[in-house]
């Protein structure tokens, strides 16, 4: 069901557009308060989630790029094999794919991922993230919801 690739493209365009806007309008490490508990803070992440392996010396760029490319191919194949009734799973996979591709573009083009969403409470800040990360997390949440039948999409076994 490759009909879901429009959602992937939307996630990639929204992600890349927001990152380019941040890159041209802010200085690295600049922070702009937007509302309570939310800032725009421009940072570069050379690692993975939560800056995992960001100080690894450079090899992680190609490792995470290869991993993202492999996962993207697998998700595209999975999407192609979905049944027509698997709407929520299709949307979930499309969002995860869009996020993976969005961050892959950054890693290959720049050697780092542009992060800018800074959520905090008091002096405690969640690690900065971006639209691609949000798409991946939303996709995983929807996939879990689908698998647990939270939205009535899981098939009930007779019993």
**Share of helix, binned:** 40-55%
Secondary structure tally, helices? 4
- Domains counted in the coordinates: how many? 1
The profile of the biggest β sheet is:
4 strands, antiparallel
Tell me the span between the first and last alpha carbons: 31 Å
Radius of gyration: 17 Å
Describe the global form. globular
Distinctive features:
159 residues, alpha+beta, 4-stranded antiparallel sheet, 4 helices, 53% helix, globular
Structure description:
There is one protein chain. The chain has 159 residues and is of the alpha+beta class. It has one domain. The protein is built from four helices and four strands; from the N terminus they run H-E-E-H-H-E-E-H. The two termini are 31 Å apart.
Question: What's the SSE blueprint?
Answer:
Elements (H helix, E strand, L loop, with lengths): L4 H21 L5 E5 L2 E8 L13 H22 L6 H24 L2 E9 L2 E2 L5 H18 L11
Antiparallel strand pairs: 1-2, 2-3, 3-4
Summary, kept brief:
This protein is an alpha+beta fold and 159 residues long. It has one domain. The chain contains 4 helices and 4 strands.
């Amino acid at each position: 069901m490759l009909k879901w690739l429009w959602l992937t493209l939307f996630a990639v365009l929204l992600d890349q557009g927001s990152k380019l806007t941040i890159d041209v309008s802010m200085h690295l490490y600049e922070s702009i308060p937007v509302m309570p508990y939310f800032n725009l803070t421009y940072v570069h992440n050379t690692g993975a989630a939560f800056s995992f392996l960001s100080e690894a010396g450079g090899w992680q760029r190609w490792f995470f790029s290869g991993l993202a490319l492999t996962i993207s191919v697998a998700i595209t194949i999975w999407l192609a094999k979905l049944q027509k009734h698997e709407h929520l799973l299709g949307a979930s996979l499309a969002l995860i794919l869009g996020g993976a591709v969005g961050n892959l573009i950054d890693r290959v083009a720049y050697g780092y991922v542009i992060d800018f969403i800074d959520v905090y409470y008091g002096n405690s800040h969640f690690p900065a993230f971006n639209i691609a990360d949000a798409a991946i997390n939303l996709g995983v949440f929807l996939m879990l919801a689908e698998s647990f039948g939270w939205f009535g999409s899981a098939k009930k076994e007779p019993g």
